[in-house]
Amino acid sequence: MRSSKRLGIMIGGCSLLITILMLVGIGYAIKDQLFPSVSAQPQVTALPEQTAEKNQLRIVAIGDSLTKGVGDSAGGGYVKQVVDSLAADPDKQAELVNNLGISGLRADQLAQNLKTDKGIAYALQQANVILLTIGGNDLFQSLQGVGDSNAAATAEQSMSLAQVEKGLEEGLTRLDNVLSELHRINPDARVIYMGLYNPFFDVEELRDGSLEVQKWNERAYDMLHGYSNMTMVPTFDLFEERIGSYLSSDHFHPNHEGYKQIAQRVVQAL
Amino acid sequence: MHKLLLLIENETLKMWKKRRFLVIVLVLLVIIPMFTYAQLTVAQNNKDKFADWRNEVLQQITDMQNRLSSNRIPEEWKKQQRIAVQQLQYYLDHDVNPSSPNGVTFTREFMNNAVGLFIPLLVLTIGSDLVSGERGTGTIKMLLTKPVRRWKVLFSKLAALTLYVSLLVGVMVLLCYLISGMFFGYGGWGLPIFTGFTINGSEVDTSFVHVVPQWLYMLMQTGLVWLSAMTVAILALMVSVLVRSTAASMVIMMASVIAGTILSSMSSSWENAKYLFAVNLNLPAYLEGSPPPIEGMSFSFSLIVLAIWAIAGLIVSFSVFTKQDILN
Amino acid sequence: MEQSNVVLQVTNLSKKIRGKQIIHDVSFEVRAGEIFGFLGPNGSGKTTTIRMLVDLIKPTSGKIQICGHDVQKQPEQALRHIGSIVENPEMYGFMTGWDNLQYFANMLDDVDEARICEVVEIVSLTQRIHEKVKTYSLGMKQRLGIAQALLGRPKLLILDEPTNGLDPLGIKELRAFVRMLAGEGISLFISSHLLSEIQLMCDRVAIIDKGRVLAVGSVDELVQQAGTYVLWQLEPREQGIALLLQGGKVAIVSEEEHRIDESVLASMPEAVVTTMPLEDIAHTVSRLVAEGISVEGVHKAAPTLEELFLNMTEGKSLA
After folding, report:
1. With contacts defined as CB-CB under 8 Å, which chain B residues touch A46?
2. Domain A56-269: CATH class, spelled out
3. Contact C113 A4 (CB under 8 A)
4. Which CATH class is domain C3-224?
5. In the UniProt record, does the keyword Transmembrane helix occur (chain A) (predicted)?
């Protein structure tokens, strides 16, 4: 009897307290959402500096769809295979910090990201090995998907080949920007740049593309040579003549085997 | 006035003795540890995989961007992803962990996910039989033959319902905090949280973004959760006045709440759906800066829609209840 | 002066539900301290009328006054003076008897714990009042219902079919209880579809059928009006009948005309049904015996409710 009265008062009291609290919350929410105080805008804070331990390989992969691993039926691309085979070696402790590959990324976009994105910089600073693929999209964007289609659009293709030549200079400038940004962010990490290959080696009209690819690789090597911590891993020789077995069905990206070949070269380079 | 208090006490004790609330607490005691465990596993995974949260967020952003470049994904979904990317990027740029694992963050996210469906369902279990239940058992005759005006009877029920909705929200927050805190720690009250993202199409405008400490964010969010729970409660009360059977009243309300969830997740092209109450229940989403389920909805829009539904519900409940003939 | 003596005054009460007239122009009054029967077959509008008395249903037209207060206009003042059980005594099964009473006490004025104890005492539930209502038997629920109705010290107690579902012993207890309450000055309004029930309990009665009040008056008067049958069991039968008719005061009622309860007929096989002045029975018996007719049984049979209605509707149509 009395106890039920007390129970009632207790329930009522607690609930009432919460109700009041809720009303205060709603009041704040309305004030906050409808009349936001702009003065309280947060300052952009600098990310903390990283202290790297030397005895370990901390890998950040960055770049385009090759880094992402597009075309690899097992997923993960060459990056995963590099990390896996390094991890299997007990002397080398390898760890993938981040795989920041984004499909379709061009060198100018990457340079922009490197310049502005603090998160990417943060990850790169943690790394002592940076794997980089970039440039393919700058050079070949107009040609993607060509290998699958029949040769009906030959005229267009040869025109595109002309575009490839034109894109070469611009792409190399962009690559230069990327490299200098990388150097700015982390001058100590080993940067391994994958050279380009010509995915259209088996398409008669585009076979000459290999010459452009070679020019790119040559010039890219020059740039990389300017930085003591950067090296290039060539890939063009892997794919010529073996397009059928190393390229995936989209005729642009490597398949699992193709990635395996790239990964082996990277491991050797390390 | 004293009489009214006694009536409210009556209803409150009656609901307590019905043991419904106890059932709800038991449900929470089962569900919260489950979610805590799930969260713990995720946290554990990420801890193994990433050096710290920045890498984790960075990877999230990269993954989202990759998904965005796929052609197979519907444009509506891409829009949301783009917004999410921009917000995550904002957190990363400002070196604030958007989901640091601690009791408070867990509670915040749990409540955030519960507001659309879970909380309404719990509210319905206490609200749906308030009047129809008394009709079912015939006790309504005992109530209404007493020298008390009918509006006072209904008002006492509404007041008790309000108290229980508050208690429900309060207990839920408390249990979340206590249980998840055992695993994630009890800290995190002072963590900075960003709010004030404004969405224009698929672009996020950050010019109004500001920091609030997590405790204040929690207070605001829980207040909004309470507000949408109250709207559901009032409508449940209305339906239970209008419909004679408790089962029917429960089904009607559940169906509308679930339909609302489906409609909002479909981002439907049926634009008028935005005037339905169930589509507007997710008020905390505006705090968080998630895009609204339907174009043209905003925080104030949802507040007004819910308020109109609630007021209409109250008017209908009271006018029907005070006039209706009790025939069975 | 007479007005203050009236506890419940119902004037020209009508109710339409979904366009259908359920109650037609019902009027009656219940006076202080009397037991008022409300008699009618199932579906006659008894429950609808009772629900209007206790404000569960709003009348379409007409007026209900309880102790001078209009139920429509001043429900709080009017309902204060009545206690009621409409149909079954439904209480909250998940609460104890005591909690239920406490609950209803909170809805009334000036009902304290002492009063709750008092009513529990009156209905003799003291033993089990702290147990949950869902464990109660129907009789106990009935008593708890009455306790609840008595809480507010009502001037009028409304009981709707109170004997429904009770065993004979329970019914007997209930009658005694009703008498006891009346003795304490409470007016009672009791509805039933059984004439015998009303006859045993009530002082005055209103008879309702198809939503109309057919008659209001004292129970004895009404039964009288309807006439009583006298059943004769004679041996030899034919001679006896001839002798019965000799006096000229006795009339034989044919099988088609009378409506006597089957059970009564069964206990008197071959009985002759008659109507006659009741004071002549003794005289007639001695006359028959003197003529050598053996009288094996004489029985006064009250008319059934049906009979009563028939008489009344006939009377009405004649008038």
Report:
1. 95
2. alpha beta
3. no
4. alpha beta
5. yes
